[in-house]
Amino acid sequence: MSFSPSGTVAGAAAEAELAGPDAVNALVGSIETDRRDSFVALGSAFLTRLPASPLPAPYLVGISADTAAQLGFDASHAHDPAFIEYFTGNTTRDLPPDELPYASVYSGHQFGVWAGQLGDGRAIGLGEIEHGGKRLELQLKGAGRTPYSRMGDGRAVLRSSIREYLCSEAMHHLGIPTTRALCVTGSDQPVRREIMETAAVVTRVAPSFVRFGHFEHFYTNDRPHELRKLADHVIDRFYPQCREADDPYLALLNEVTLRTADLMADWQAVGFCHGVMNTDNMSILGLTIDYGPFGFIDGFNAGHICNHSDSQGRYAYKMQPQIGYWNLFCLAQALVPLFGPHYDEAVRNEKIIEDAQRVLEGFRDRFAPALERRMRAKLGLAEIRDGDDKLANQLFEAMNANRADFTLTFRNLAKMHKADASGDAPVRDLFLDRAAFDVWANAYRLRLSEETRSDEDRAIAMNAVNPKFVLRNHLAENAIRLAKEKDFSEVERLARVLRHPFSEQPEFESYVGLPPDWANGLEVSCSS
Ligand code: AMP
Ligand code: MG
Question: Which NCBIfam families match (predicted)?
Answer without folding.
Answer: PRK00029.1
